[in-house]
Amino acid sequence: MRRMLVAMLALAMSGTAGAEELFRSDFQHGTAAPWQASGRGDVRLTSFEGNVSMRLTAGASALAEMPVRGMRRLYVTVKIAGDGLDPQAACVAEASRDGGRSWAAIFAIDRKMADGVTLTAGGAALPDVDGGLTLRLVARGGRATCWFDDIAVSGVALADISPTRRALGRAMLTAGGAFERPVDLSAFAPAADAGKSIARWEGRLRLTGARATGFRMIAEDPAFARGDTIRSLPDLDLALVQSGDVLLPAQRGLIPSTHPDWNWIVEPGRVWSEPGDGGTARAALPFALQERNANCTHNGMLTFLFGVDGTISHAAFEIAGETCLYRKFDAWGLLVARYLPGTVAGAAELIRAHEETNAARLPMKRLEDLPPAVAAALATAAGPEPTVYGAVIGGVHYRSACVTRHGDYPACDVIDLPSYSTAKSVFGAVALMRMGNLWPGTAAETVAAHVPACAAAKGWADVTLENALDMTTGHYRSTAYQADEDDPSMARFFDPADHAAKIHFACTFYPRKAAPGTTWVYHTSDTYLLGTAMADALRAKRGEKADLYEALLQTFGTAERHRAFVGIRPLC
Questions:
Q1: What's the pLDDT score for residue 122?
Q2: What is the pLDDT of residue 556?
Q3: Is residue 415 part of a domain?
Q4: Looking only at Cα atoms, what is the longest distance across the chain?
């Protein structure tokens, strides 16, 4: 079999999927149904301290079949205990999506984990195949005795795609009001009877005073509670240009706002027309609300109707997923929108840049196009509720769907995913390497030479930019893992939005305790110091208007730049 090189594993972001339980078997009612025994060993229910489990002896197996059509992102969990396992024996739970022709491991315990008492929990995700599911429990080898318990299967329903529009129809968007509950996000994609747009957009979209009329908090860490303001959206005034069936925002990336909680990110959307829309065009824009001064990102969709005469309907929006550990919510509603037709400066360049970005992207295929064993391994690595995951194999990007609590995200190619520490680490390292290439010795320059706040403090005269990159400045309070980073005092660094407060903390909060380059302690503030110092070093070499990020982009040609910094967005 040809060896495949896996170039990159996409990040699996924290849970968004609205998984529902499809099957559970805990045997507490004293029945083994629907499990069927086979093999030469013994299969029976046993009880220990009031808990009932299924016991299998060596050579025995038990199978259960269940219909799971119309479901995806299946995740199976099981608890297993074992006794009498020799080095070649194991207690195994596995699954098949093809009627038993091939099997994928769910969880297994070996001799090291088998103490005859402890039920150890494990689980795995399965590749998305629309078909049945067979589970098999096996006591494999030697004199093995295995106990299995609390076996559960969960999954996410496939979107019900109607040949005609069922939700967010013309009457609702035109009249306004509110829709009572979240809709499947397929409502923000073209219906099956959609055709080419009969109107063309060029001008500005304006949303003001926007507020969710529907809101449901899924989870929120009390330490990060923000109150009622998170239910409102920032005002938006954004130029958009249509190119074919694509609707391009003139401003990509973060759009700062004055809202206390959120900034906008708006990505390229789509434009089309449907027979039921009364001679208007329908647009859908992917967007995200990103927490101010932080990276928690809540992805949503926006849709509205517009006409050749410049009219516009209300705009419906829905947020149904996020990459945020401490705050998860659904939000939805209808917003008052304004369309200001007019020429957008730089429209041709905007379209050309979009085309170059798309041309620079890797070819993409579904994760299900991989061999089942590879797809199963990636699904298991991603865990039960990722936003999206995948891998680059042989120059092809294999990617899962972007699953939310209310159907698949219809713009998975441009979904916004924060990279957290990945971004700061990669950018800091690449930028310092590039500066060292242009101006040898830059990495050995001192932080104090470029950061006045550190020069005024003690202990920075011999700390280099490379030390800051390595987080070995010698300034720290504790070497215990993450103790400094998790200290509540870090709020004094993270919360302020101004540079002066952040740089004062970075230079003064941690005392000097070790020689630079000798002790690693994780500090986000060290990377902030590095960026500040590199920016000053660049200005000293290229003038006061030099920008570190733009200087780094200039090291790439046009297509290469988009490939390196924009085209990889779905992989992050």
A1: 84
A2: 57
A3: no
A4: 81
Say yes or no: 204 and 120 in one domain. Answer: no
Residue 507 contacts residue 303 (beta carbons within 8 Å): no
**CATH number for the domain that contains residue 448:** 3.40.710.10
Q: How many domains does the chain have?
A: 3
- What are the distances in angstroms from CA 65 to CA 35, 52, 97, 134, 136? 8, 21, 10, 4, 9
Total length of the chain = 572
Domain identity same for 19 and 110: yes
Rounded distance between C-alpha atoms, residue 347 and residue 218, angstroms? 40
Both 226 and 287 in one domain: the answer is yes
Give the confidence band of 565 by pLDDT, cuts at 50, 70, 90.
very low
166 burial class (0-12, 13-18, 19+ CB within 10 angstroms)? Answer: middle
Question: Parallel, antiparallel, or unpaired: how do β-strands 396-399 and 364-366 relate?
Answer: parallel
Instruction: For the chain, give the percent of residues with pLDDT over 90.
Output: 61
**409/185 Cα distance (integer angstroms):** 6
Percent of the chain with pLDDT over 70: 91
- Quote the mean pLDDT of the chain: 87
**For residues 392-413, average pLDDT:** 92
Q: Is residue 291 located within the same domain as residue 195?
A: yes
Whether residue 248 is found in the same domain as residue 137: no
Which range of residues forms the domain containing residue 428?
A: 421-566
In angstroms, the CA 371 to CA 400 distance is: 14
Residue whose token pair is 């441009």:
414
- Domain identity same for 124 and 184: no
237-270: per-residue pLDDT in tens?
Answer: 999 999 999 999 999 889 999 999 999 999 999 9
* CA torsion, ordered 52, 55, 61, 65, to nearest 10 deg: 0
Looking at the fold, whether 204 and 350 belong to one and the same domain comes out as: yes
Contact 119, 81 (CB under 8 A): yes
pLDDT at 552: 77
Averaging pLDDT over each range in 92-96, 381-385, 418-422, which range is the top one?
A: 92-96
Mapped to the 3 state alphabet, what secondary structure does 373-442 carry? HHHHHHHHHHCCCCCCCEEEECCEEEECCCEECCEECCCHHHCCCCCCHHHHHHHHHHHHHHHHHHCCCH
Q: 536 and 430, same structural domain?
A: yes
Listed residues 304, 338, 358: the one ending a domain: 358
Using the predicted structure, report yes or no on whether residue 203 has a pLDDT greater than 80.
yes
Domain termination residue (choose one: 133, 157, 181): 157
| Cα dihedral sign, 99-103-104-109 | positive
